[in-house]
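Narrative summary of target 7.
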Amino acid sequence: MSSETHDQQAEELRIVGKKYIGRWISALIVLLILLAMGNSMLSNPRFEWSVIAENFTGPSIIQGVLMTLRLTAISVVLVLQAARFLR
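Modeled conformation, tokenized:
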């Protein structure tokens, strides 16, 4: 087999990506489960949104979120500085 023949055959081949049917089916199942859970939460009259809002806006929760954001910003600055010096 000459290199010309091999090159011609390679040009004629059409590359097709692998089909991931199982991934699509499992993603669809997970999406349907999440939609069912969301629908159950939103349509349930015993789901007390005022209690959830009260708990999520409590002082300790807000302080925790702010501390997390501060630590994230500090980490980003430190990593960027370390990357600058390690370059």
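Residues 3-86 form one domain.
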